[in-house]
Amino acid sequence: MTAKTLMIQGTSSGAGKTTLVTALCRIFSDAGYKVAPFKSQNMSSYSYVDREFEISRAQAIQAIAARTEIMPIMNPILLKPLGNYKSEIFVNGIFHGKMHARDYYKKFALSKGLEESKNALDKLLKTNDIVILEGAGSPSEINLQRYDIANMRMAEYCKSPVILITDIDKGGSFASIVGTLSLLDKKHQKLVKGFVINKFRGDVTILYPSYSILKKKTLKPVIGTIPLIEFDIPDEDTLHANPKQVSWTKKYLTTLDKEIDHLALIVKKNLDMKMIRGMLN
User: Fold this and answer.
1) 124-141 core/surface letters (b: 16 or more CB in 10 A; e: else)
2) What CATH number has the domain bearing residue 151?
3) What pLDDT is stored for residue 246 in this prediction?
4) d(Cα 36, Cα 62) in Å, to the nearest integer?
5) What phi, psi does 173 have (nearest 5°)?
6) What is the pLDDT of residues 126-175, one digit of tens each?
7) CA gap 78, 13 in Å, rounded
8) Cα–Cα nearest to 79, from 64, 97, 53, 66
9) Of 56, 109, 245, 251, which residue is most buried, by most CB within 10 angstroms?
């Protein structure tokens, strides 16, 4: 069995990639599919620690959303920042060593990092109906594209359609979408199938003229607009000074499950799920 794939990338960090993947994992699980999340490389100070492995907390929560076992291959490369451009490196949940960013990019990312990521993804593809991939940061960071193993390299590897999500609450979303696309290689532009506008406040109908202009410029549709909503699911720590601490108790997991259901319900209501199902290859 080879799973169908869908990848969520963002115009920036904090655009809502993690949240959208979490919601989609629950939506497709509710529909009866065997689903797994995947993020080849994640940088986070907050992790899920098992007796045998350690991965990003985000992928552990996404696995809970998918109602599947939390596995190290869901986040084969975890970087835990130490400061001064150094990080602890975990490979498939096992501590690999400490590395300076310069050495990581030049000596690790495109060799062992990429190899382990592809191997981990292959295993998930063989045992699931759908694998939902999450990118990191932006795929158009031209200073890092050469070493990027979290975005288009993985989408290209598994021939995954890509949805690009942007945070309209920050402003500049339409410019971010057009700019992101313009800085991608032509072959990667073709993988992007549409956009999701995230964290919108107000009457969505006022955006419709902008969506028409965006489609004329990019030839790609807006798949949905997710309102700015409140939910109690831990964020990544990249944009937050005090991300929520988690205690993986039975009581907390029950609360988390309800929050995921709430999130999934709102996301499903505001996305064109028929269009998304049509993207699954």
Assistant:
1) bbeebbbbbbbbbbbbbb
2) 3.40.50.300
3) 76
4) 8
5) -65, -45
6) 999 999 999 999 999 999 899 999 999 999 999 999 999 999 999 999 99
7) 16
8) 97
9) 56
Strand partners, 195: 164, 222
Low-confidence ranges of the chain (pLDDT < 70): 1, 235-245, 281
Tokens encoding 221: 């549709």
Residue 156 in tokens? 């290209």
pLDDT for 100 equals 97
Domain range spanning residue 177?
4-279
For 109, the token pair is 């990312």
Share of the chain above pLDDT 70, in %: 95
* 137 HSE (CA, 13 A, CB side): 15
DSSP-derived 3-state class of residue 271:
strand
Domain count for the chain:
1
Contact 35, 62 (CB under 8 A): no
Long-range contacts of 51-56 (CB under 8 A, 24+ apart): 52/93, 53/90, 53/92, 53/93, 53/94, 54/78, 54/90, 54/93, 54/94, 54/95, 55/90, 55/93, 56/236
Phi, psi of 131 (to 5 degrees): -115, 125
Q: How many residues does the chain have?
A: 281
CA angle 277, 279, 280 (to 5 degrees): 70
Q: Which two tokens stand for residue 193?
A: 């199938």
Token duo for residue 260 = 């995921």
- The per-residue pLDDT for 233 is 81
C-alpha span between 71 and 57 (Å, rounded): 12
- 130 touches 35 (CB < 8 A): yes
Structure tokens at 136: 């990191």
Contacts of 239 (CB under 8 A, 6+ apart): 13, 14
